[in-house]
Amino acid sequence: DTGVSQNPRHKITKRGQNVTFRCDPISEHNRLYWYRQTLGQGPEFLTYFQNEAQLEKSRLLSDRFSAERPKGSFSTLEIQRTEQGDSAMYLCASSLSIPKQFFGPGTRLTVL
Amino acid sequence: DAKTTQPPSMDCAEGRAANLPCNHSTISGNEYVYWYRQIHSQGPQYIIHGLKNNETNEMASLIITEDRKSSTLILPHATLRDTAVYYCIVRGDTGGFKTIFGAGTRLFVKA
Asked: Residue A98: pLDDT above 90?
């Protein structure tokens, strides 16, 4: 069990630029989740994949956000035309077909 | 998923037991109680979960009241490294398993 990894760990970008984050889940886990966390708040659910299928999306996931999990393994989260309000920690988690989730260290995004 | 209520912060002396309460009065019969914690600048970490029986693992114990309307997470010998935000979550075992986090309890372990 090598754990969930996320890259990059930190990203600083200018408003209006596009950014992409990657998540590598624990290898046998078929479920993958993205969350967003702002300072002082608990993580907020963004989206969920079972294998390669995106089965649930939060209303927080505006049309500037897109997530993929092309082969049911790693996942990417892209934010287009970033805004200062997108500054947050983006967390990825994975699980087997039970609710116990394993979280990665997160990618901290700063939009200037 | 049922809503939970936790105190915003608690202090505990190093080496003493930390008892973190959680109210979940609207919990339904098939919903589990989960606890996660988040150490500063890290992702949340699963601690323990239970349905109605008390549970214990290498990290903590979970005590659930008989009516299941509240629970207590017990860290038997708190260390400075246990300083973190602790989240109590209630949810069922079907569906997408997304986790709805509240604000949690910020536990400060003091030397």
From this structure: no
